Amino acid sequence: MKYNPNEIEAKWQKYWLDNATFKAENNSEKPKYYVLDMFPYPSGAGLHVGHPLGYIASDVYSRYKRHQGFNVLHPMGYDSFGLPAEQYAIQTGQRPEDTTSVNIDGGTDKEGNKIAGYRKQLDKIGFSFDWSREVRTSNPDYYKHTQWIFIQLFNSWYNKNSDKAEDISTLVSIFSTEGNVNVNAVCDENIEGFTANEWNAFAKEQQEKILLQYRLTYLAETEVNWCPGLGTVLANDEIVNGVSERGGFTVVRKKMTQWSMRISAYAERLLQGLNEIDWSESIKESQRNWIGKSVGATVSFKVESQKSKVESDQQYIDVFTTRPDTIFGVTFMTLAPEHELVSQITTAEQKAEVDAYIEKTSKRSERERMADVKTISGVFTGAYAEHPFTKEPIPVWIGDYVLAGYGTGAVMAVPCGDERDYAFANFFKGQQGMSAIKNIFDKDISEAAFGAKEGFQLVDSDFLNGLDYKKGTQKVIEELEKINQGKGKINYRLRDAVFSRQRYWGEPFPVYYVNGLPQMIDAQHLPIILPEVEKYLPTEEGLPPLGNATVWAWDSVQCSVVSTQLVDNVTVFPLELNTMPGWAGSSWYWMRYMDAHNENEFASKDAMAYWESVDLYIGGSEHATGHLLYSRFWNKFLKDKGFAPTEEPFKKLINQGMILGMSAFVYRISFTYGIASEGNNEVVETLKKIPTVFISHEKLKKNDQVLNGLLSTIKLKDEVISIVKKRTQLSDEFLNNLVPFISGIHVDLKVINEITNELDIETFKNHPLYSDYKDAEFVTEENGKYIVGREIEKMSKSKYNVVTPDDICNEYGADTLRLYEMFLGPLEQAKPWNTAGISGVFGFLKKLCRLYFDDNGLIVTNDEPTKDNLKSLHKTIKKVAEDIEGFSFNTSVSQFMICVNELSTQNCHSRAILEPLAITISPYAPHIAEELWSLLGNTGSIATVAFPAFEAKYLVESEKEYPVSFNGKMRFTMVLPLDLNKEQIEEIVMKDERTIKQLEGRTPNKVIIVPGKIINLVG
Length: 1019
Hints:
ATP binding, Leu_tRNA-synth_edit, protein biosynthesis, alpha+beta, 6 domains, ATP-binding, Leu-tRNA-ligase
């Protein structure tokens, strides 16, 4: 009988499927435990070995909890809307729903690409998912409920008095009886006041426009990250280094009318909720910084050029500052380039320069502007503002370090107290529009700004002289309120989330337009299904892809989607052309898992009351300020409306580290001809005749050669030039002027030996990726081998360093993969993948099996276990239970190896030991555990058998092996009970034949005995 992982694993995966082994019940006498993974986007590339890391960890924990008697919900689904499928559709003409389906279920797409399929790959690894609850966010039966939640948001407002979302009807009631003067709501800025009589007299359209200023999801013209290459708006977290994360396209700032969500209404609750959840401090800090709570004051500066005797016509620049005490140090003001006042106050002389700067800035993302603290840029508008107390003119600049969406989009610059303002003032020092820095601190600022909030007194600050930060802040707010030019305020960096995407493959909005105003489709008519389109690109008029749909209008009488040709704006109206962003479906999916087949509700109250919230969530830290923040926002909203049972969705969060790939490189030599090659056609043509030369990494290393640079080592240069001469017969004069450069090229791992790092040169030359190098020359080691360089990088198809779990499972089995991924290192740390280590884990599993069976079959006995057997087992039970509870999975695997080695040495085949051992290892290696459990004569699955109880008595030492020394030199050992006192030990030692032989009739001068430690006879 041999360990055959492929046969064993296929058998038990089928058993689990046929018997619904991991199906969770919504009503159970068992205590509940909900384990959730961040569900994947199903790309055509499929899984690589880095993807399952978190899934394996959550699976180990889920299985352990089942062993402990919990009713465990461990579901899986797919975040299946998104840009990648749409981009692929644009490139190949395939329907995104078709490619998404193939990516999940496997098969061959219309391009002829064979797709493994996420479901098959996941099943192959043996996860204990409850597949009966699978969700796909792109399925109409799922996004029907996403649309419903959107409608609830639209029909809600945030009441600051009750500190929660309420139905919009309660706001309408207030307006109709009291007007809006006393309404304390989160809403648009600068809303005009009205009385109850005025509200009741407003036309319906006017009332709807006003309500849009209060709704939790609303239409507004906002600054967005527009990506022309993708034809859509991107969120900040979808932009890397100023370009789109997907495709690397340029991103510019642009004003567009968009759907937005008032996540800002929940800023304080999102902050306070972090104190109630068990998340890593780094993730909490990321969210705190993103929310960015600041306590300070708003200050209004009159625009001098717009001064008017009529107060209603007066223009103001409003700023928010956390340091109102420094108001007498204001030297200049800076507006965001996108600030609406810029175009109004810029003088004719400065217009061209300002316009050019705005155009340049629009190409930088907000994230890039925030991160770039070194670049100083700005332009003077030519305008001035008036200081609220001194009435002095303050020059107004624009600068891209100020963001339109943060605060008011304007800052009062106090260079003496702020490093960035200090650098800006010094950079533009002496230019028109930049005043000399004012110092209002009793501190020297000749070298740097003084930014501390303590240890100073204010000077040259009028009525604030002699005050500190706290007293100065309080006093200036009082004086600002007296002159009606400011007040105390709490501000947040968190901005309302743009909720529109100009793309096809996303949730359709349940929205149609009457006279340009949005109307919600009644929930009973949902879902509004994504229509068919011929093209996935924007229309020729620049409308989103849904503008290509021929059946995309709403018949308000028939309550159905009809042909766009029927639009008459009387009974048939245009539907929304934008779709929802990628985070829409992922902002509530954990609730759908609770009751995945409910057709009428996203989940029943009973199901949600039972499961409440996620007990353990495992996923990537990259979602800290995206998905995790939006999810908490939606959960809090649904709690306000009585749909969610808890304030926070995820009690405990673990962020798994990344598994990195070990890339391989070949090193190519390319040539220039000094400076003479530039523009010299004859030289350029001659250079083209030179063959590609690759040089072995080990040869470069031995010669201390720096890679990706000039090949300067004389010996190597001569060797390379010699090869070129043989191949080309070029003159010595030409060869002597060649300048060789070296660069590393990623190479497919399939053309190297991963253990020896040797390149298979012939396979490399014939590989379709490297067809340009068929005639290349190779500078090898003395033994004729070409050794590639290796480097740890992110696993990626473009780096050819991807290892698929399918390959590992096929060769070694899923249990080996699971154990190895857990063994690589602490879950939360990044770690490199090294396939060479797999064989050791595979060998361990074979050694485990040899405790249970040999070539002839089962060898387990009913023999009584020895003390050593029991000690090895219970040491392992204790360690594994503690490790799983503490998420230290790597040390559990080490303990398994120690235990199996000990039991093998002890020649243990006792059922009393091996049966509980199989259960203990089951969470990590479930397939072989099931097989061993079955071989031992048990029926049913091992998955729900109680976890073995640790008994401390088996680890209590009752005996001690003492070293017996004579004059400090150990001569022999003896095993004695630990409960003996000094006198009893001495009596036994002195009577021992070995002691008598050593003493040769002498009497020792001294007998030193420390019970449990040493025995030493002196003299």
